[in-house]
TrEMBL record:
Belongs to the anti-sigma-factor antagonist family. Pfam families: STAS_2. It comes from Lentzea pudingi. Residues 5-114 form the STAS domain. This is Anti-sigma factor antagonist.
Length: 121
């Protein structure tokens, strides 16, 4: 049984948190790209993509995550992934993509790390 793809977005002091829910495949990738493009992201903001409820991700989904990284960089921000499922983490390792993203256990951890990094300057 497949799980329909959806997204939710919430604002935080360090930047937006975009949650990917369900199966992120070639049919869902356009919705992921649209959600990314609509994010209010400014210089110094951190985009957190929360993958807690992501049940499947194919190469189209990985391309969407890379596009999100590019979007954040062009906006002068940064990106972090939260709650990366084990199977996706393994794929990142096999493809040599682990260095592209800051990865945290939860969205709250990612936000805390961002706040701590800005107060240390």
């Amino acid at each position: 049984m497949s799980t329909a793809f959806s997204t939710t977005t919430r604002s935080t002091p360090s930047g937006p948190v975009l949650s990917f829910i369900g199966e992120l495949d070639s049919s869902a990738a356009p919705a992921a790209h649209d959600a990314i493009k609509q994010l209010p992201l400014g210089t110094g903001d951190q985009l957190v993509i929360d993958l807690t409820d992501l049940t499947f991700c194919d190469s189209s989904g990985i391309a969407a995550l890379i596009a999100a990284r590019d979007f954040a960089g062009k906006a002068g921000g940064m990106i972090a992934l939260a709650a990366v499922p084990r199977h996706l983490s393994r794929v990142f390792g096999l493809l040599g993509l682990t260095g592209l993203f800051a990865i945290h256990a939860t969205a709250a951890h990612a936000q805390r790390a961002r706040i701590e990094s800005t107060t240390e300057r």
